[in-house]
Amino acid sequence: MRLKKEKGIIVAFDMEDTEFALELARDLRGARGNFVIKVGRPLEMRAGIGILAQIKDASELPIIYDGKIADIPYISQRIASSAYDAGADAVILHGFVGSDVVKAVKTLGKGDVIAVVEMTHPGSDEFIQPAAERIAMMVARTGLEGVVLPATKPERVKNLARIVQRENAYIYIIAPGIKTQGASPGDAIVNGADYEVVGRAIYNAEEPKLAAETIYSEVMDIADAMRTGGDAMKVANAYAARIKELGIEFDYIHGVAYKGIPLAALVAMRLSEWEINKRWGYDRKEEKRYGEEGAIVGELRDGDTVLIVDDVITTGATKVESWLKLASMRRDVKSAGILVAVDREEMSDADKKMLARYHLSLYSILKITEIFEFLHNREIDGKVYVDDGMMHDFKQYFRQYVPETQC
Asked: Is 106 a catalytic residue?
């Protein structure tokens, strides 16, 4: 059972509770979306290598053994062989160990080989990052099936993805660091990744299966909505029409990295066709110190009123972070609010107070409840996207996270 080169979520099984792991594996068996399970060392050390086959049988999903293999060729080959024999469809090794180790594991021919090119934590910048481009080129030329890039560093994902895909168009890219480590769902996929890896945000949730499906849908939202130029213009039209409807006055449209970047450009272009000509820009998650330096790209001026655009809002934290960055760069910058395509309606009272503190009004084109109510048992192009089962799961999830709802 090999991994497909398509957008999906890899659920990191880094827990130590064997029974809980098997329960979650059974739940994911029926989860809606493209899922893969990655078994880490903590669970393997607690339960033994046999846990791979148990999780595979319970979930019927592809299994990655995340042993972070990093030894001489002979030992690395033995470790990988044992993992494949125990049920792993893929193994993860460290690329920094060199081409002889990578080739030794590849020659086994027992399953996919995935190499770590760069890691998510800050310490990776000390020794691994300086060599990451060379590692990326080496593993791609060796013909490996996948690479690991850090979702917490989207610019690095973009740059390294170009290198590996230039050498090997069929290689898939997986990116850990979503949610708990700070990266937002969709950031890595927008920058070239195929899979985003999520662990604690799923298995520590009260309803892990619902959390997995929700994060999956969040990852796919705008990326799927703007697959073609025609689709992108439809999205831009919806934003521009909502701005006109609300009568929002502003000088500058700001896109929150990364899914807000194309939105800001498209909305500014569409408004200009209606003789509403506004400046636009976007922020960088990693400040650039060469060429066009700074934390943002765009002509933000003193006294500007700024409209922030993004795809969805959950807690509002990334929007506040973006606003504070803008407010620190120019004098007397004012907020026209935040406009999103979808309000997920999960904001707590504390989240709402946080937005109010910075005078950030929230506007949306649609609310998540409106979308589900519209799609419930409605056939579109021969397919029902929200059947009774999905509606039941949605209401259960919504009651859990938004207790005051009347769903």
From this structure: no
Instruction: Please tell me the CATH code under which domain 8-219 is placed.
Output: 3.20.20.70
Burial class (CB in 10 A: 0-12, 13-18, 19+), 302: exposed
Instruction: State CA 205 to chain mean position distance.
Output: 17
What is the rounded CA–CA span in Å between residue 329 and residue 308?
15
CA dihedral (114, 118, 122, 124) positive or negative: positive
Using DSSP bridges, classify how beta strands 146-148 and 112-116 pair: parallel, antiparallel or unpaired.
parallel
CA distance 197 to 38: 9
Q: Single out the catalytic residue among 7, 56, 68, 353.
A: 68
Residues 6+ apart with CB under 8 A from 260: 254, 282, 308, 309, 310, 311
The CATH code for residues 229-375 is 3.40.50.2020
pLDDT digits (tens, 9 = 90+) for 338-396: 999 888 888 888 889 999 999 999 999 988 888 888 889 988 778 887 888 888 878 87
Count of Cβ atoms closer than 10 Å to residue 294 Cβ: 15
The residues, ordered by sequence, that sit 6+ positions from 165 with a Cβ below 8 Å of its Cβ are: 140, 171, 173, 192
Helix (H) or strand (E) holding 350: helix 349-357
